[in-house]
Amino acid sequence: MPPPQRLIGVVGKTNVGKSTFFAAATLAQVEIANHPFTTIEPNVGVGYVRVRCAHVELGLPRCDPASGYCLEGWRFIPVKMMDVAGLIPGAHEGRGLGNKFLDDLRQADALILVVDAAGATDPEGRPAQPGSYDPVEEVRWMEKELDEWFYRIISRDWDKFARSLYDKNPVDALAQRLSGLSVRKHHIEEALKRAGLEEKHPMRWSLDDLREFARVVRRVSKPILVAANKADLDPAEDNIKRMRKELKDYIIVPTSAAAELALKRAAKAGLIRYIPGDPKFEIVDEKRLTPQQLKALEYIEEKVLKRWGSTGVQDAINRAVFDLMNMIIVYPVEDANKYTDSRGRILPDAYLVPRGTTARQLAYMVHTDLGKTFLYAIDAKTKRRIGEDYILENNAVVKIVAAAAKKA
Ligand SMILES: Nc1nc2c(ncn2[C@@H]2O[C@H](COP(=O)(O)OP(=O)(O)OP(=O)(O)O)[C@@H](O)[C@H]2O)c(=O)[nH]1
Ligand SMILES: [Mg+2]
């Protein structure tokens, strides 16, 4: 079984550009409009992380991705994404669309919190003069709404649950209770430690303890990255400087989702050459562009690429996967000399796996039988044998040798 697909949730206040970000990442056709609550039902799609492909390091002329794609040595590896309805302050008390729709994000491994860094929408998401509202406040409000979401789920029938624990291991019971939120045992252990509740039995937790636990468990199981969106609008410049100063605990990535969407669509239409995440694009043939399109591209060049180095969308996805989820990339192959699968495809698979994954765990991801009958693995770069407990490095190219494989 290939590794479980990771899911990035796109969340935030209403009308800040979540669906634009999602569309830019996935090229899915979704509704985008400059008014609150355009999105009601969640959108699900596939985005990509961008990494230097192992075929470049190995001196191969190309690769043959079974999923995703490779462009000029950049490998784009799929990652699931979900765009949901927007929040407003007080959502947990039922304001706006409430926050129950966040339940769609229970399976998320990380969240990209899109905020309006230009301050061009009021707290209810209504369009306003850019610069009129404070994105620092927006980050704090939105995170509070996310915490309230977790708290609501965790605190449901808490007393009854806590009483039922008197003779049980609280870690296992909590993990089971929160498994629907994709909270794993190691998240619980980490959260108990950080909240200082390791030695205090849940039966004795105060309301404050419970709140603190909910807050911390949300942070460890659904970490957030802030996409400071609408970075193309002038007031965003000062705002982002201030966000970086006042929100030191957050990863803040300036983004212009609208710019990324425009560039990707133009590239798809063959009007420009653009590799997602690049600091530049090239016009294929100026004569094919309308004056309007040309002006839009000039705007993107001036206000986004020159100012920020890229549209930031790719960077946000990459950092969510590598910095928040702590993933690495591993390429399983059948032939450790040619770096191919049994059909001769070069580096067909690039797996996103958690840092710390062992050779044997990888074998299980390739095929359960390979995991069960694992003998050893070969690091295809060095041709060295590695044992089952060997912890794989980022960009490892690995052949699994198993008893089952011999029989086949
Ligand atoms: N200037 C600028 N506008 C943007 C950017 N990204 C999105 N927008 C605009 O912001 C408005 C809202 O975009 P959506 O993507 O629909 O926002 P949303 O957060 O999904 O909104 P809801 O689904 O209604 O909560 C649209 O008019 C977009 O064109 C950006 O990077 N720069
Ligand atoms: Mg939307």
TrEMBL record:
Query: A Gene Ontology molecular-function term?
Result: GTP binding
Q: Which residues form the OBG-type G domain?
A: 6-275
The UniProt keyword set, sorted, is:
Nucleotide-binding
CDD domains with a match to the protein in the record:
Ygr210 (cd01899)
What Pfam families would the database entry show?
MMR_HSR1 (PF01926), TGS (PF02824), YGR210-like_G4 (PF08438)
Q: Say if the entry is tagged with keyword Repeat.
A: no
Task: List the Gene3D superfamilies hit by this protein, alphabetically.
Answer: 1.10.8.470, 3.10.20.30, P-loop containing nucleotide triphosphate hydrolases
Against InterPro entries, the record matches this protein to: Beta-grasp_dom_sf, G_OBG, GTP-bd, P-loop_NTPase, TGS, TGS-like, YGR210-like_G4
Cite a GO CC annotation: cytoplasm
Protein name (database record): OBG-type G domain-containing protein
